[in-house]
Amino acid sequence: MKKVLIVDDEPGLRQSLGLLLTDAGYAVTAEQDGRRGLDRATAEPFDLVLCDVRMPEMDGLTFLRNYRQRGGSALVIVMSAYGGEDAAIAAMKEGAYDYLPKPFRPDEVVLTLRKAEERERLRQEVVGLKAQLAAGPAERGLIVESAAMRQALALVTRVAEHNTTVLITGESGTGKEVVARAIHRASPRAARAFVGINCAAIPEALLESELFGHVRGAFTGASADKMGLFEAANGGTILLDEIGELPLGLQAKLLRVLQENEIRRVGDQKTRRVDARVLAATARDLEAEVRAGRFREDLFYRINVVVITLPPLREREDDIAPLSRHFAARLAQRLGRPLALSDGAIAWLEQQPWPGNIRELENAIERAAVLNEKPVLERGDFNTAPLRQEVERGSGGEDTGDGTLKSIVEDAERRAIIEALKATEGNRRAAAQRLGVSLRTLFYKIDRYGIS
């Protein structure tokens, strides 16, 4: 409950304001003059102060000046029946948040306080984001509260200074690229390039050229020499995202690069030395892929030196609130308007399973912000229908497996794939685009879930 201090020499106004704000959910304290108000404001913490300009003992502007000099941090709203714009300007110069001319309507007072709360919430979020930017390189870009992610961050810090190959594992959307960038920023290579490639997003015929480059005439359309991503990352770091999607033929060539630190452009006869630290990321179980013959065992052991496993968001409940506020603050900057999340909205977000992890959480907040032109998003502003349907399916009706959260999430993923295939009339490429995954990943999921 927010604490409000009313400083005014009119007993009737103090009483009416006290009743109004108490009904609005505030904890109200009142003082009859500026000097007593100053003593109370500096002795107790308040979130908001409503202060009259003309008072005995000490006027409102003097109160405000002294309060700021003593380190008072509450938002002060000045009230007056005199002075008009001049009084408002003078109050703002002394550090007031807003100015209310008397007489005012009750709803006008409550609205002004609500706006002040929103401003303070956004200010605190900006302070938090600035602190992140000023933090050590390993922490920058990572919003961490949960114990599991703190362990992962500690591992990031330890491996960053070495050239060791790191394998980052975790479900789609858990922040594997963010962790990879944090490793790069904390490493001695931070001043050089960070190059990332999603191995599942590029057609197999073009992937070798993207990774290693090609020479003129190597194939139809190769009209000039082209540098590959390994050369572009020379001296820096390359992230091979979704490395489990790499075709077997390219896996052998990648193994040679890791062993010999040299590449050969497509169509070239000579090799070129490269010095790029390799980070790999995958949502697949690579050991299972090795057993199935889809991933080379020697490459697996070559990249499986240090493994950082990122837990899914449903196992990181402590991270949901700070992540949500971070996304809202970033959206506010992008949309050019105030944007925050109510406590009710945060509580609701913390209760959701988020099968799409951090990416799904961010998308949900963006969707709610775009569809609702409101400075504070409430629980009802989020589209809950899909999640509600999954809960209903999991609590009765159709079978969802063994009833664990994992089986419910897998069932939701299977249903989403089926719906996408229906909506695209079986066009798998269009379904993959609709779901935001690569065609290769969609084929893998279809095979995994036995979807015909």
How many H/I helical runs?
19
Q: Give the integer mean of the pLDDT values.
A: 83
- Find the structural class using helix and strand composition: alpha/beta
Give the CA-CA distance, first to last residue: 55 Å
Largest sheet: 5 strands, parallel
- By CATH, the superfamily of the largest domain comes out as P-loop containing nucleotide triphosphate hydrolases
Share of helical residues: 40-55%
Give the overall shape, derived from the CA principal axes: elongated
How many independent structural domains?
4
Radius of gyration, in Å, reads: 29 Å
Find the count of extended strands (DSSP E, 2+ residues).
16
Based on the coordinates given, report the CATH architecture of the largest domain.
Answer: 3-Layer(aba) Sandwich
CATH-defined topology of the largest domain? Rossmann fold
* Proportion in β-strands: 5-15%
Widest β-sheet, arrangement of strands: 2-1-3-4-5
CATH class bucket of the largest domain = Alpha Beta
Stretches with pLDDT under 50, minimum 5 residues: 127-140, 384-401
